[in-house]
Specification:
Blueprint: H1 3-26, H2 31-42, E1 46-50, H3 57-67, E2 72-76, H4 83-87, E3 88-93, E4 98-103, E5 110-114, H5 121-125, H6 127-133, E6 135-138, E7 141-144, E8 150-155, H7 168-171, E9 174-178, H8 185-193, H9 197-203, H10 210-221, H11 227-240, H12 252-269, H13 276-287, H14 301-311
Parallel strand pairs: 1-8, 1-9, 2-5, 5-8
Antiparallel strand pairs: 3-4, 6-7
Helix pairs in contact: 1-2, 1-3, 1-10, 2-12, 10-12, 11-12, 12-13, 13-14
């Protein structure tokens, strides 16, 4: 690694840590979840935040978009939301005798899909092409989405009334699924005694912009992954396909995403190379929603991932 590349990496690492520091002023006591979330976006992945209502899922998603200086739209997903409400519609222009496309809220840099599993599968599937191809097709015409383009979605636990489970094809489009969790006693007391989080979000400055995010992404992509780490990732993928009661293991695409997320994690930690512990740090968020247990959609997926970490030798 030459001096300029090393300098760029260090600058990107410092920028990532400054982003996390600002996020921590709004989202209290959630350093792990914030680092996971930032790693996901630096790895160019979409993020799913799942937890019970009232723990700060929307606040975290909103703070990420604002701190990264990206244009964003928030859509509250409901049972009557239609695909056209997201993508947009073609309206006939009587003066020009042509149909003109009017883009919907999907045409932004960050789409905050709030409570994504409260809408119907038809509307959920409207996001598939956008998340995978960064484009949408309407009336036979393809429309490119802005760059960068991220979906940060929140969802409530599947056992709650009025939720529609995301299909496997939709879940796989999310690089990482994380939980916020309840705050510890100190953070909860600070929340109770402090300012309203919505007021703080309104005053939150951007720590960077699209160019800064692109620099972090480029630096993360340049993090070196040695043969032993690649062997370790491949061993994890192979072991996941031989687990009892798991109908499908981790795919090669998941392995590529796992490496990308681990590289972003290593960048934030200030390293220029991957370690097995970087892979282990992001594996639960990358793999849990992809390992569907035969006895329930995700009932034991967390246990399965912990078993993988324990069973596969670390090089």
């Amino acid at each position: 690694m030459n001096d300029r590349t090393d300098s760029d990496r260090r600058a990107a690492s410092e920028l990532a840590r400054s982003v996390l520091a600002q996020l921590s002023t709004v989202v209290l006591g959630k350093e792990l979840a914030l680092t996971q979330a930032l790693s996901c976006l630096v790895a160019r992945g979409h993020l799913l935040i799942e937890d019970q209502p009232g723990v700060g899922k929307t606040t975290m998603a909103h703070a990420l978009a604002v701190t990264l200086g990206l244009k964003f739209q928030r859509v509250q997903f409901t049972s009557d939301l239609l695909p056209a409400d997201l993508i947009g519609v073609s309206i006939f222009d009587a003066g020009q005798h042509v149909f003109r496309f009017h883009p919907g809220p999907l045409f932004t840099q960050v789409l905050l899909a709030d409570e994504i599993n409260r809408t119907t599968p038809k509307t959920q599937s409207a996001l598939l092409e956008a998340m995978e191809e960064r484009q949408v097709t309407v009336d036979g015409h393809t429309h490119a989405l802005p760059r960068p383009f991220f979906v940060i979605a929140t969802q409530n636990p599947q056992h709650q009334i009025g939720t529609f489970p995301l299909p496997e094809s939709q879940l796989d489009r999310f690089l990482m699924r994380i939980s916020v969790g309840l705050p510890d006693a100190r953070a909860e007391r600070e929340l109770l005694a402090g300012r309203d989080r919505r007021e703080m979000l309104a005053e939150l400055p951007a720590s960077t912009d699209g160019a800064g995010l692109a620099a972090m992404q480029a630096a993360a992509a340049g993090i070196h992954a040695g043969d032993r780490v690649l062997d370790y990732v491949q061993a994890l993928l192979t072991a996941s396909r031989n687990l009892p009661d798991v109908p499908q293991g981790l795919s090669p695409r998941c392995g590529i995403g796992l490496l990308g997320a681990a590289r972003a994690w290593a960048l934030i930690a200030g390293r220029d190379h991957l370690r097995p512990e970087d892979v282990q740090a992001v594996l639960p968020a990358v793999a849990t929603h992809r390992l569907l247990h035969a006895g329930g959609r995700n009932g034991r997926s967390g246990e399965v991932v912990r078993h993988l970490i324990e069973a596969v030798p670390v090089p």
